[in-house]
Amino acid sequence: MSPEEVLKKIENLHATDLLPQSPENWEDSRNFLQQVVEILYDYIKEENNRESKILDFHQPEEMKKLLDLSIPEKPMNLGELLKSCSEVLRYSVKTGHPRFFNQISCGLDLVSMAGEWLTATANTNMFTYEISPVFILMEKEVVSKMVELIGWAPDQGDAIFTPGGAIANLYAVNAARHFHYPRVKPLGMSTVPTLCTFTSEDSHYSIKSAAAVCGIGTDHCFNIPTDNVGRMIPEALEEKIVQCKREGLHPFFVSATAGTTVYGAFDPLPKIADICERHKIWFHVDAAWGGGLLLSPEYRHKLSGLERANSVTWNPHKLLGALLQCSACFIRHDGLLFQTNQMSADYLFQQDKPYDVSYDTGDKAMQCGRHNDIFKFWLMWRSKGMEGYRQQINRLMHLTAYFTDRIKRTEGYEVLIEKPEYLNICFWYYPPSIRHLEEKEKNARLEKIAPKIKAKMMERGTTMVGYQPDKQKPNFFRMIISNQAITYADLDFLIDEIIEIGKDL
Amino acid sequence: MSPEEVLKKIENLHATDLLPQSPENWEDSRNFLQQVVEILYDYIKEENNRESKILDFHQPEEMKKLLDLSIPEKPMNLGELLKSCSEVLRYSVKTGHPRFFNQISCGLDLVSMAGEWLTATANTNMFTYEISPVFILMEKEVVSKMVELIGWAPDQGDAIFTPGGAIANLYAVNAARHFHYPRVKPLGMSTVPTLCTFTSEDSHYSIKSAAAVCGIGTDHCFNIPTDNVGRMIPEALEEKIVQCKREGLHPFFVSATAGTTVYGAFDPLPKIADICERHKIWFHVDAAWGGGLLLSPEYRHKLSGLERANSVTWNPHKLLGALLQCSACFIRHDGLLFQTNQMSADYLFQQDKPYDVSYDTGDKAMQCGRHNDIFKFWLMWRSKGMEGYRQQINRLMHLTAYFTDRIKRTEGYEVLIEKPEYLNICFWYYPPSIRHLEEKEKNARLEKIAPKIKAKMMERGTTMVGYQPDKQKPNFFRMIISNQAITYADLDFLIDEIIEIGKDL
């Protein structure tokens, strides 16, 4: 049959004509899968074409009319399913496009993607060695490499891959509480004094969210002020701890951030570690975004002090470019994850199995079923080696320096932080129409500039970059340079595109 | 070039030779991906071959020697990566094999798998309409269909797809607490009396785990006794609630189970709903496993009363066969998910965007980044339609009746529950050597039979089925018939295989 005839044939088939319902029909099964793969190939090719649009933006109500998303009464045939696949991709945002600077997690590493395809096909669950022997050992191997990079002693520390950094932070708060107040697990919070936690005002909101979930209360998660580049002020932390103690609260958890979401700041870890030691408080570092720098000998000093942490959150789906989701929570205290989360569900995690059940991870997780997030990361890491990551990260740091320098020298642009510590560059753009206004009026107008430019970008579909306000500062852009696809020319493009859009504002 | 030459060429390349690092080199990128896909095709074909082994079991220490899992200093070439892919699959457990009866989540639906491949390629994050317009609308559409099936009024209720049922249950406990005691979110548990929750002794351990995480305490999560088929005894529930109140505790949350993990029992929802109403307690139903039955008009009556629930957990990755992970938590109270989880992180979820931001889901999630679990389910559901699922589910129920009947009539087998309610069949097997022992001795020997048979099965690699003890009952097998690939002959095979292995015990 010709390719057209093959397509014609499978288009009229249904899922029931494929494996496993039609166990003999491998040929059509393969042809269907191959058609899906061809659609994905086209998408990848287009995503990597700088001339292609990042998105074809439509308002929600309009988008609903463009797409039929309904669940039908009768099965749809394979041709209709293939059409669905194409349509969905047509209206999706190309997060791997080299000019998508909108999120910390972006880019599409083809090796990691291939890894995720394999993960889907293997479709297993990370809770026991019994059903995930290879992936469980792989997780152990990768964890021990990451522990080494964190700087803990070999074989010290334990970790679990979690669905995102927010849940990793929740694991850390919960483990810290169990370490200091083990009675809470059986008896609840009524048996302990009023607990409190600390994090910088620039930290990720998940630290506060964990306080809500754990029954500590968001008002007992104190925001410590930051300095002019976004780093927690250690003296302010210690002052607040002392004040809380004086008021009868029990401080037990400090979260420092290595790589804040907006400014990319690194809190001064050694000083915070000292304070935690002095006050016998759990020292957590949220390195979800910044952790990847450990792979660069040139920049890992920014994380020095991390080795003193009691726990660390680190998301390989951020700087390291693994596909979403890939996050881990590391705990320096052996056995604590088990003690905290174990519910002794013998009906699931039998102790009389024919292998060493200490390899099973179910009892140390808050989840029961757990997605395999390790393979895509492991395969990608192998494809780069330590050396490849080092080069990739150092290159991104150079691109950041280049971009910062360029916008500083370009009329209309103003950086919020003179020398960004990391891959976030925060800046304002003043269109010609507001440049010569007096300060107050200019700032009032500035507040609306970034949303307007962003809306226009989305309409044009050429590039995307995020914005937000911060405290008294009007809306500003936050550029993220974490996609390995980015070139110097892409950065020039963004600068020119904003100028172009700003002309008419 | 011949296929061999193509392979030869790409084997010596590195990831840096592919997109996006080498933006022009689509041809090699495609060839590499295609090689991975060919490996996956071989795996799928083999997995669906009943003669193939489900696993090639090795002890952890031995497995470590068979596989090189290390992270190298230098990049590995594409040939080595392909070899890694093959090796990993070679030692993985084929959870989609038609004779893998070990877990509730198993099988490999090719359409759902193709969906997950697309999800990987689209690699986006479910927190805003801005970067996931199509998938956000799709989640809304699927949620409204599921809400309809649950039996809530149209447009009533809200839901979020979560990483597994345990986290979905955690969402429910947290939302219920916020509903009854909104002050806990800002002020913590010290502002409320001692709270307590209730669930049956046969329920999933994640209800207890949620009590631990939330600071309620596992001792304040009371296990209500079950009847002889594993259903919660409503009178015992009410008695316990009254007793708790008398003792000064504040009951606020009851979790009924629709489809228990071991026996597949359905708690009597209407009676439990009555009790919850009488005592003004939140009524949650953990239908992670049983929820799928709503798609069968013939069996959905088992869930009647579900429409009275305040919240429901339902995992499409169980009965409905979506790839892991695919779980959702439904909350009947509009806006409650937002109120509970919102942390007002304006720096991420701006309110001045150029579209209706009520479509953004970030503020109603406990997570920040959220994996796209909807597409693989949506595509699969379309491939089956309502009709296809109905047939698939009814067929599985027939297979269960067949299997139960057969083992009842086969010497050496004994069922624990005469007429299983669902797709779990629990049974003992007495090998000839112990059949004629006196009761006490027989039971002592029986305890070790299931683990021995299981170990032997794993060695032989022919089939897999789980076992566990329960209260005073010695270890028994728990058969799960949820993989659409299963045939009557596969069930016969299992019965014979156990007899075969049991001969020599």
Automatic annotation (TrEMBL), chains A, B:
InterPro entries: PyrdxlP-dep_de-COase, PyrdxlP-dep_Trfase, PyrdxlP-dep_Trfase_major
GO molecular function, one term: glutamate decarboxylase activity
Family membership: Belongs to the group II decarboxylase family.
A GO BP annotation: gamma-aminobutyric acid biosynthetic process
Record PTM N6-(pyridoxal phosphate)lysine, positions in chain: K318
Protein name: Glutamate decarboxylase
Family annotation (Gene3D superfamilies): 3.90.1150.170, Type I PLP-dependent aspartate aminotransferase-like (Major domain) (3.40.640.10)
Coiled-coil stretches noted in the UniProt entry, renumbered to this chain: none
Database matches in Pfam families: Pyridoxal_deC
Keyword vocabulary terms for this entry: Decarboxylase, Lyase, Pyridoxal phosphate
Names of the cofactor(s): pyridoxal 5'-phosphate
Subunit structure: Homodimer.
Record's GO cellular component terms: cytoplasm
